[in-house]
Design goal:
Length: about 425
């Protein structure tokens, strides 16, 4: 038997039928083949084709067009992903032809006609396909289809800070529900998880976002802000809840991204700021990822409100991020939403190396109205609760401010990593 296929003969049909009488399940399968045999079906491979799969797995993608003629056996796509695939075999030649792949085949297709074939590919690899006409090997054309494993989707993260201390606060609950609908792989908690201090976290934030260790707690990556998260360099309540030291930098990787948490509370209370700066520079130097995102509670870039303006003590960290070619900086503390164009430490636009900063202090606590503007601001809103969604692509990102239920303000865009 050759790759050209095997032609069923009437003698074989009769012999197989007699041998399988009384075996109902097998007879049903053979009967299907016998019906096709009267048309001279060409079956690629061996008689194991009788056991070929007949039911597709999952979603059938857009059809792959097969063009068959005396000189052509061509597919419209030669690289596909694992799963079910529908072929449309079009005979543009002058003789009847059959298309076969992975031990599946069409009946002979008359000139000018089309027949469909659905095949389920369970494994990656190269699969030989055959276009065969009535006759011998000279009437055969072949090629290969490459089946590859489906790639995982790019990671999606969310980020928001500044919450309430009430387990029934409707805005905080609506923000949490927005995060749950997005279903991120990580939620960056940009500090101020409760008011007035972390001693109330179990009666508010934990009940809405947890309770620990359930709910969204396992995917939350926190950062510590002053006053509401910690009250001194030695306040241990933050670590008791989150299991992380409040005044230490930490980082992790997602896909092509390196993500860094910076404890801005250390600047307020002067808790080894120089040591954290040194650790940040070492962390940036050690990272092999193309893209970098950092998040901290207090803002370096922000529109002013009556409560908060720029925290200049953060400049060494922002300078280190800029020097290390970081891409995105997430902040909170001001209870509003802001997006800045990429800029340098002199507040000048810098499309080549600049950091794109966001303020996302829209987690549920009362919002702060703006009292002024700031250079390079691209979008801002002080009336809407919500969460920032970011899709982390291999060489860039997409962002979207997703309003909580009842909100109408939105903001979206994209950027490329340095």
């Amino acid at each position: 038997m050759t790759d050209a296929g095997y032609r069923w003969r009437p003698q074989l049909v009769g012999r197989v039928t007699r041998q399988l009488l009384g075996q109902a399940k097998t007879l049903k399968r053979v009967a299907i083949r016998l019906a096709a045999a009267s048309s001279g079906v060409v079956i690629a491979g061996s008689l194991m084709a009788l056991q070929a799969q007949t039911r597709p797995l999952g979603f059938v993608a857009q059809p792959v067009i097969v063009r068959m003629s005396e000189s052509v056996c061509r597919l419209s796509a030669t690289n596909v992903k694992i799963g079910s695939l529908r072929f449309k075999a079009m005979n543009v030649g002058r003789r009847a032809r059959s298309f076969s792949i992975a031990r599946r085949h069409t009946p002979f297709v008359r000139p000018g006609q089309t027949r469909a074939l659905t095949v389920s590919f369970r494994k990656a690899g190269r699969y030989r396909y055959i276009c065969a006409a009535r006759g011998g090997p000279r009437s055969v054309r072949t090629g290969f289809l490459r089946v590859v494993a489906s790639s995982a989707p790019d990671p999606v993260i969310t980020a928001v800070g500044d919450h309430t201390s009430s387990a029934t606060d409707p805005e905080d609950i609506a923000v949490k529900n927005a995060v749950a609908r997005i279903n991120p792989v990580a939620q960056l908690g940009i500090g101020d998880f409760q008011y007035d201090n972390i001693g109330t976290i179990l009666s508010g934030y934990d009940k809405i976002w947890g309770p620990k260790p359930k709910g969204l707690y396992p995917i939350i990556y926190p950062t510590a802000g002053p006053t509401h998260d910690v009250t001194s360099c030695t306040d241990a309540r933050y670590q008791n809840y989150w299991g992380r030291p409040a005044m230490k930098i930490y980082s992790f990787d997602l896909g092509s991204w390196h993500i860094i948490s910076l404890p801005s509370a250390a600047v307020r209370y002067r808790c080894d700021v120089v040591g954290i700066t040194t650790a940040l520079k070492a962390d940036l130097a050690a990272s092999k990822k193309r893209c970098t995102l950092a998040f901290m509670q207090e803002p370096y870039w922000t529109r002013p409100t009556r409560t908060h303006t720029r925290e200049n003590g953060l400049k060494p960290w922002v300078q280190a991020l800029y020097d290390g070619n970081a891409d995105v900086l997430l902040q909170a503390s001001n209870h509003d939403y802001q997006r800045f164009a990429p800029q340098n430490l002199s507040d000048r636009p810098d499309a080549a190396r600049g950091l794109r900063a966001f303020v996302v202090g829209t987690g549920g606590i009362s919002l702060y109205p703006f009292t002024g503007t700031a250079p390079n601001i691209e979008a801002s809103n002080d009336r809407t609760y919500g969460v920032l969604k970011i899709v982390l692509h291999p060489s860039g990102y997409e962002f979207e401010f997703v309003p909580a239920a009842g909100g109408t303000f939105t903001d979206a865009g994209s950027g490329t990593c340095h």
